[in-house]
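Thread amino acids onto this structure.
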C-alpha cells in the first residue's frame, strides 16, 4: 500500500513539473498546429475570427514553448531566454488582449450589443498602446518593475472583472456559438485562476494551466467550425432566394412578352377583317399600323430596360455582398432592385403614367445605381410647387436613358464630387425638365468611347429610342416637343458637365 501511495505521489509530482515530462512539448506542438491551420483558413475565408484565433494560438505558443525540456525549438532559442523572461508579463498581457479581441468577434458582439462592442474595442486599443509604451520604457531603462506592477495590479483585476461581465453579456445574446465560448472561457478562467493561486502560494501545479488552455482551444476550434457552417448555410439560403427572385422576374417577363404577342396578333386579325371596305380599310390600316408600331416600341423599351448588362451587374453586386457576409447591404440592394424591376414591368404595359410615378421610378433607379458607386453621387429631385405631378401624363421611363447616360458616361469616369439633379417646372404650355450633371462632358465621354472602340454605346441607343417614342406620342396629339443638349464649361473653358433640357406638352397622354 505504501508503494501505491508513493507511486501516486510520484505521478502528482510529475504532473506538477510539465516542463520535464513532455506536457509542454505536446502543448506547444498542439498550439503551433492550431495556429498554422486557422491562419490558412483565414486566407481561404477572409474571416477575421480565424486570424484572431490563429494569432492567439501563436502567442500562447511563444509564451510556452521555450519552457520545455529537450525541445528542439526551445534549444534553438536559448539565447532569447533572457528576453522571454524580461517580457514575461508583457507577453501574457498581449495574448490576453488578443483573446478578448477574438471573443467579441467570435460571437459577433457588434450585432447583439453595439455599445459594449465599441467600449471593448476602445479598451483593446488602450491596452495595446499601454503594452507598447510600458515595454519600450522597460527596455530603455532595463527595468520591468513598472510593467510587471501595472500588469499584475491594474490590468489583471480589470480584465478579470471585465471577463466576468463579458461572459454574462454574451450569455444574454442570441449568438448560436456562444456556448462554445462560455464553457471554454468559463472553465479556463476558473482553472487558470486557481493555478495562479497555487503558484503564488508556493504550490505550483502548472499542468492545470496547460490542460485548461488545451480544453479551451479545442472548444474554440469546434465553435469556429460551427460558425463557418452557419455562414455557409446562410449564404446558401441567400443564393436560393436570389435564384428564386430571378426565376420569378424571368417568368414575369415571359408573361408580358406573351401578352404583347397576343395583342399584336389581335390587331393583325382585325386588319384582315376590314379588307371589304377599301376606304375604311385604308383608315383603319393606318391606325393599326401606328398601334403596331407603338406596341413594337413598347417591346423594345422593355428589352432595353431589362438589358442583360444591367441584370448581370446588379446580380453580381448582390453576390459580392453575400460573399462578404454583408447581409444588410445585400438585403437593401436586392429589395430595391426587385421593386424597380417590378415597377418597370408593370409600367411597360401602359402607354402613359403620371409624372409622379415616373419620378418615383427614377429615384429608385438612381438609388440602386448609387449603391454600386458606394453612394458617391449626390443627387436631387426638385419639382416646382406649381407642377401637378399627379395629373401630368408622360410615357413610362421617358427620362431614364438621360439619367443613365449622365451616370455612366458623365459621372462614372470622374474623380471627386459627383452631382446629379432632376428639375421639373412649368414653361407656358410645356413642362420643362432639366437633367444636369457635373461630369466630364460629352466630348470627353465620346473620346473615351472611341478609345474603347464602342461603335454604338448602349446609352446612345436608349436616347435614340426615347426620342422615337416622343415623336410618336406627340404626333398622335398633334403637338410638339423639344430636347436641347447643353455642354457646361467653367471660366477656363474646361468641361464641367452636361445639361439636358426637355420640353413636353402638358396634355401629353
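Threaded sequence (509 positions):
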Amino acid at each position: 500500500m505504501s508503494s501505491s501511495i508513493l507511486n501516486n505521489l510520484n505521478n502528482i509530482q510529475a504532473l506538477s513539473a510539465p516542463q520535464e515530462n513532455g506536457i509542454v512539448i505536446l502543448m506547444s506542438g498542439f498550439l503551433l498546429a492550431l495556429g498554422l491551420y486557422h491562419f490558412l483558413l483565414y486566407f481561404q475565408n477572409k474571416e477575421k475570427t480565424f486570424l484572431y484565433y490563429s494569432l492567439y494560438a501563436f502567442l500562447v505558443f511563444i509564451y510556452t514553448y521555450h519552457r520545455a525540456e529537450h525541445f528542439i525549438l526551445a534549444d534553438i532559442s536559448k539565447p532569447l531566454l533572457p528576453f522571454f523572461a524580461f517580457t514575461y508579463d508583457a507577453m501574457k498581457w498581449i495574448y490576453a488582449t488578443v483573446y478578448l479581441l477574438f471573443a467579441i468577434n467570435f460571437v459577433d458582439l457588434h450585432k447583439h450589443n453595439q455599445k459594449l462592442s465599441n467600449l471593448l474595442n476602445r479598451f483593446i486599443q488602450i491596452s495595446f498602446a499601454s503594452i507598447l509604451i510600458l515595454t519600450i520604457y522597460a527596455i530603455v531603462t532595463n527595468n520591468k518593475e513598472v510593467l510587471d506592477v501595472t500588469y499584475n495590479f491594474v490590468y489583471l483585476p480589470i480584465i478579470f472583472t471585465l471577463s466576468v461581465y463579458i461572459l454574462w453579456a454574451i450569455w444574454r445574446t442570441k449568438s448560436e456559438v456562444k456556448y462554445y465560448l462560455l464553457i471554454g472561457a468559463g472553465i479556463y478562467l476558473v482553472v487558470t485562476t486557481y493555478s495562479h493561486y497555487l503558484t503564488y502560494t508556493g504550490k505550483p501545479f502548472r499542468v492545470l494551466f496547460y490542460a485548461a488552455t488545451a480544453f479551451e482551444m479545442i472548444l474554440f476550434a469546434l465553435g469556429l467550425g460551427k460558425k463557418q457552417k452557419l455562414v455557409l448555410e446562410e449564404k446558401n439560403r441567400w443564393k436560393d432566394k436570389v435564384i428564386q427572385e430571378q426565376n420569378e422576374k424571368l417568368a414575369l417577363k415571359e408573361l408580358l412578352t406573351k401578352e404583347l404577342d397576343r395583342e399584336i396578333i389581335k390587331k393583325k386579325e382585325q386588319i384582315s377583317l376590314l379588307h371589304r371596305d377599301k376606304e375604311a380599310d385604308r383608315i383603319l390600316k393606318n391606325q393599326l399600323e401606328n398601334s403596331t408600331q407603338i406596341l413594337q416600341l413598347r417591346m423594345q423599351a422593355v428589352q432595353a430596360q431589362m438589358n442583360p448588362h444591367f441584370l448581370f451587374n446588379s446580380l453580381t453586386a448582390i453576390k459580392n455582398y453575400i460573399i462578404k457576409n454583408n447581409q444588410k447591404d445585400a438585403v437593401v440592394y436586392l429589395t430595391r432592385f426587385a421593386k424597380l424591376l417590378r415597377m418597370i414591368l408593370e409600367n411597360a404595359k401602359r402607354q402613359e403614367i403620371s409624372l409622379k410615378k415616373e419620378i418615383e421610378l427614377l429615384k429608385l433607379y438612381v438609388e440602386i445605381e448609387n449603391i454600386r458607386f458606394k453612394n458617391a453621387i449626390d443627387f436631387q429631385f426638385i419639382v416646382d410647387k406649381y407642377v401637378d405631378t399627379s395629373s401630368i401624363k408622360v410615357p413610362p421611363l421617358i427620362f431614364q436613358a438621360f439619367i443613365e447616360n449622365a451616370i455612366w458616361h458623365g459621372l462614372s469616369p470622374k474623380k471627386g464630387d459627383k452631382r446629379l439633379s432632376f428639375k421639373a417646372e412649368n414653361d407656358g404650355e410645356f413642362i420643362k425638365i432639366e437633367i444636369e450633371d457635373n461630369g466630364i462632358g460629352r466630348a470627353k465621354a465620346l473620346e473615351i468611347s472611341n478609345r474603347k472602340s464602342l461603335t454604338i454605346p448602349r446609352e446612345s441607343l436608349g436616347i435614340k429610342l426615347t426620342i422615337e417614342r416622343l415623336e410618336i406620342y406627340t404626333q398622335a396629339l398633334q403637338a410638339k416637343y423639344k430636347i436641347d443638349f447643353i455642354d457646361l464649361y467653367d471660366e477656363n473653358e474646361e468641361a464641367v458637365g452636361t445639361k439636358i433640357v426637355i420640353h413636353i406638352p402638358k396634355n401629353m397622354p
